[in-house]
Design a protein that fits this description.
The complex is a heterodimer. By secondary structure, chain A is an alpha/beta fold. Chain A has helices spanning 2-19, 24-36, 50-61, 77-80, 116-128, 163-166, 180-189, 204-213, 221-233, 243-248, 255-271, 279-290, 298-302, 307-325, and strands at residues 40-43, 65-69, 81-88, 91-98, 105-109, 130-133, 136-139, 145-150, 171-174, 249-251, 295-296. In chain A, strand 3 (81-88) and strand 4 form a beta hairpin. In chain A, helix 1 packs antiparallel against helix 3. The longest helix of chain A is centred in the C-terminal third of the chain and has 19 residues, at 307-325. Chain A starts with a helix and ends in a 12-residue tail after the last helix. The relative contact order of chain A is 0.15. Chain B is mostly helical. The longest helix of chain B is centred in the N-terminal third of the chain and has 47 residues, at 6-52. The N and C termini of chain B lie far apart (102 Å). In chain B, strands 1-2 form a two-stranded antiparallel sheet. Chain B has 17 helices and 2 strands. The chains are: A alpha/beta, B mainly alpha.
């Protein structure tokens, strides 16, 4: 199943590459997050293909898709659903009307424009894959995948996502600008601007099987130690934290970051058709997993420190330290363990 | 990616295991060096101090070796955090861009992903602890410099072979033994050889050595006593001869006096030599001629003064010879029997019976007089109990050895002792005298 799943994942990526020109890393990371069961926060200027990516992925995966356009007047019930009064054959009763969150693919467009209360309505859904209303919990369909988008411009009147909610996203991807060659392809190959997608490549069961197959990807002890040390060194209060981290970072990543870093690395190796995670997978995932979890200090923000670049530098130094001196303080695991 | 075959992957993993062993050994070495760094530093200072202060270097070297061995034991018991088994595999995996394939093979034993050929040729990071080796070389150089650097003459210390006191005593006794007959000469030669061997013994004297010394002393005393007896007899004979000569001169050469004198001269013939022997011979010839004349004129002479007077010069020479012989005998007797030149036996605090009370008294005495261990060493050295001393320069050493003979030690120490040592010795011996 794993080999089949890897092939399917690669086909999914190839189809997405055909829909989103010139952004292969974006498509791979999004598919990796989907396979890993995490949620994605896309940040980029309008028109860069965020919505197209979400719609294309949902279509290719053959799963239900809903879109919520977040506005300041959006209420939590508009997301989770609500109970409505209904007179059924003379018997009055409250009937639950599920909100758009009850779907496989949810596109939360411009999520930072909604109020904090409305944003928080997504918290339980994203973390627990369930919604609780009037004391009654309702499970969301599996797989449940949220792609949220936000614009880095027009920030007036917006509510930046709180750190707790940011942490619910497995990865955050800065959508890069489209290059000239891709633009040329867009205007020559798509007269109406919409991509032509093949039929669904997956179905619900296949998608779930692919997610389960991810657990079979081997995570070597060295990589696990690397991830653990990386997260520890990214925390300014940790004794092993570097001077740069102490100076620039106010809050470090949580243990959830380590979990998602390992899982996204597994997914990247899975997509590449490999049975084990390598250093390269972690290096690819680090800026996207840690980027939104390391809260910069005020001075670092003023200095224009890039958190993604900081995470990359942290990875480089951690890997060098690990492979130069070894990680003696962590237990070693012998061969064939 | 062109993957390696199974045997090739095994070879790569074996290379990683070897490298890990070397790394662990280097890490242990580094840990030992780190642990022993303060010991090395202290040892270096101690060695410098020992050289400057003339302390025994062998003890410092042994202490340093024990300390370094202790550091090794400490490192063994409390090893540094162990290097993980996967370290070298991870290094090679990263260097060869194997993307985890080599790590997965190492940990699971199954090669599901191809391992690139670069894993065969990529070098592993160096394992030699160059910094630590350089540090070790620096330490060694420091120690070598400390051991080999020349010191000023006055600061240099050396061992002086001091003859043990019992041997000195036997030598002194042996030196008084008269060597007039071959048997005595043979004994003295043998005894000197034995004493030389005993004096050169470094580990102290044993029971057999003391027995040999006792035999030498007994034989020496026996020979000395025999010679003293001879000298006493000779002295008595000379006195008698002197009185006979005086009586003969006073009686004007009577036959009775001449006969007594002749008899005395004959008896004492062996006692004279040189000028005295010639004078004695002349006197004996005159006595013989006088006797012959007396026999030829026995009928015509009625009185007893027939032989006439001796040659006054011969009588004077004989008297002088007798006087010299008497003085010689006196002085030899005095040398044989006198206690002059007896070697110092140290402060006379040791009782004849060593019991607990005696030990307590000795400890009290030492506490009163020895303020430091150096004081004690100085005094014990001066009294011949210790074997070490501040040595003179090499050029003076031979002369010092010659001077440091029994009986001359006080002179030697007067010349060799520093003012502080002299004050200490004075105080010590004053305390002893009290």
């Amino acid at each position: 199943m794993k080999e089949d799943g890897s092939a399917l994942a690669r086909r999914l990526c190839a189809a997405l590459d055909a829909a989103i020109f010139g952004k292969p890393e974006l498509t791979r990371l999004t598919v990796a997050a989907f396979l890993a069961g995490g949620h994605v926060l896309l940040e980029g200027l309008p028109g860069l293909g965020k919505t197209v990516l979400a719609k294309s992925l949902a279509a290719l995966a053959g799963l239900d898709y809903r879109r919520i356009q977040f506005t300041p007047d959006l209420m939590p019930a508009d997301i989770t659903g609500t109970h409505v009064y209904e007179d059924q054959h003379g018997t009055p009763q409250m009937r639950f009307v599920p909100g758009p969150v009850f779907t496989h693919f949810l596109l939360a467009d411009e999520i930072n424009r909604a109020s904090a209360k409305t944003q928080a309505a997504l918290l339980e859904a994203m973390a627990e894959s369930s919604v609780t209303l009037l004391g009654e919990s309702r499970a969301l369909p599996a797989p449940f995948f949220v792609i949220a988008t936000q614009n880095p411009i027009e920030m007036e009147g917006t509510n930046p996502l709180p750190e707790a909610q940011l942490d619910r996203f497995a990865i955050k991807i800065d959508v890069p600008a489209t290059d000239e060659a891709s633009l040329l392809r867009i205007i020559t190959e798509r007269k109406d601007g919409n991509p032509v997608l093949p039929g669904p490549l997956l179905d619900r069961d296949t998608a779930l099987a692919c997610q389960r197959a991810l657990d079979e990807v081997h995570l070597p002890q060295a990589i696990a130690v690397l991830i653990a040390r990386l997260i520890a060194r990214a925390t300014p209060g940790d004794p092993s934290a570097s001077a740069e981290v102490r100076a620039a970072v106010r809050y470090g990543p949580s243990p959830r970051a380590a979990i998602w870093l390992a899982r996204i690395s597994r997914a990247l190796a899975f997509i590449d058709g490999r049975a084990g995670v390598g250093f390269e997978d972690v290096a690819r995932a680090v800026p996207h997993v840690l980027g939104h979890r390391m809260i910069l200090s005020y001075g670092a923000r003023l200095d224009g420190v890039s958190v993604a670049e900081l995470a990359r530098e942290l990875y480089r130094s951690t890997e060098q330290q690990l492979l130069t001196a070894g990680s003696a303080e962590l237990p070693a695991r012998g061969p064939h363990a | 990616v062109v993957g390696l075959s199974d045997p090739q992957i095994e070879a790569v993993l074996a290379r990683c295991r070897r490298q890990l062993l070397l790394l662990r050994a280097a890490r242990g070495f580094s840990a030992w060096l780190r642990t022993s760094r303060p010991i090395c530093l202290v040892g270096l200072f101690a060695l410098c101090a020992a050289r400057i202060l003339s302390w025994p270097l062998s003890a410092a070297g042994a202490a340093l070796a024990v300390a370094l061995a202790g550091c090794a034991l400490w490192t063994w018991l409390r090893p540094p955090p162990a290097l993980p088994d996967w370290l070298c595999v991870a290094q090679l995996d990263r260097a060869a861009h194997a993307q985890g394939a080599l790590l997965a093979r190492f940990e699971t034993g199954v090669a599901r992903d191809p391992v690139p050929e670069a894993a065969l040729t990529r070098p592993l990071p160096r394992w030699l602890p160059q910094r630590q080796l350089a540090q070790l070389a620096l330490w060694s150089a420091g120690y070598a410099a400390c051991l080999l650097a020349p010191l000023p003459e006055r600061a240099r210390a050396a061992e002086i072979a001091v003859t043990p006191l019992p041997v000195q005593r036997a030598e002194q006794l042996l030196r008084r033994v008269p060597q007039r007959d071959p048997q005595a000469r043979a004994f003295v030669a043998d005894a000197k050889q034995s004493l030389r061997e005993l004096a050169a013994r470094s580990g102290g004297l044993g029971g057999a050595d003391f027995a040999a010394l006792e035999r030498v002393e007994q034989q020496s005393r026996s020979l000395i006593a025999r010679r003293a007896q001879q000298l006493a007899g000779q002295r008595a004979g000379l006195a008698e001869l002197s009185s006979l000569l005086a009586a003969y001169a006073a009686e004007g050469g009577s036959e009775q006096a001449a006969a007594a004198l002749r008899e005395g001269l004959e008896r004492m013939r062996d006692a004279f030599d040189g000028q005295g022997r010639a004078s004695l011979q002349a006197l004996l010839e005159q006595l013989a001629q006088a006797g012959a004349k007396a026999e030829s004129s026995e009928a015509g002479q009625s009185s007893g003064r027939g032989q006439g007077a001796f040659d006054p010069d011969a009588v004077a020479d004989l008297r002088a010879s007798i006087g010299e012989l008497q003085q010689l005998a006196e002085s030899e007797l005095e040398a044989l029997s006198g206690a002059a030149g007896e070697p110092q036996r140290g402060p006379g605090i040791a009782p004849l019976r060593l019991d607990q009370q005696a030990h307590a008294a000795e400890a009290q005495f030492e506490a009163r007089n020895f303020h430091t261990e150096q004081d004690r060493e100085t005094v014990l050295l001066a009294t011949g109990t210790s074997q070490r001393a501040d040595a003179p320069s090499p050029s003076q050493r031979t002369a010092a050895r010659q001077r440091f003979a029994p009986g001359n030690d006080s002179e030697y120490w007067d010349k060799r002792s520093s003012p502080r040592q002299e004050r200490l010795l004075e105080r010590y011996f004053e305390g002893t005298a009290r």
